[in-house]
Design a protein that fits this description.
The structure is a single chain. By secondary structure, this protein is of the alpha+beta class. The protein folds into two domains: 46 residues, no CATH class; 59 residues, no CATH class. The strands form three sheets. It has a two-stranded antiparallel ribbon with strand order 1-2. It has a two-stranded antiparallel sheet with strand order 3-4. A hairpin with a 5-residue loop joins strand 3 and strand 4.
């Protein structure tokens, strides 16, 4: 997919098999996959391979779990063990992979966050 699509554009993305994905599907897959964005010039030469570490380390995940304990959606009590670690600032837009920018969200609320753009502050 193009950077514009990754950042909220409306163009379809394509798998290497040629199968088209909606922008929403592509962004959700990118959020959950171990991708390293590549910037290519007009001739297809790699100009930049982006940041290497997108996912939180096991130690970071443990620290986040100890602090947040459950999904951060206001009405959800799904335990941390069943939650995804979500970047508060989207990783493709420069979000950092650290404990300060991480929010635990259950799979349902993680999908909802990507679909609606709604964010959830840390709960007490």
């Amino acid at each position: 997919m193009t950077l514009d699509t990754l950042n909220g554009g409306l163009a379809a993305a394509h798998l290497d098999t040629g199968l088209a994905l909606s922008p929403t599907q592509a962004r959700r897959l990118a959020c959950e996959a171990g991708i390293i964005p590549a910037v290519l010039d007009g001739a297809g030469h790699v100009l930049d391979l982006g940041r290497k570490r997108r996912f939180h380390t096991p130690a970071q995940r443990l620290a986040i779990t100890l602090k947040q304990q459950h999904c951060q959606h206001p009405a959800c009590t799904t335990p941390a063990a069943y939650c995804h670690t979500h970047h508060g600032i989207p990783w493709p837009r420069g979000g950092s992979t650290d404990t300060r920018d991480a929010v635990l969200l259950c799979p349902f609320h993680h999908r909802q966050t990507h679909a609606t753009g709604e964010t959830y502050p840390l709960r007490p």
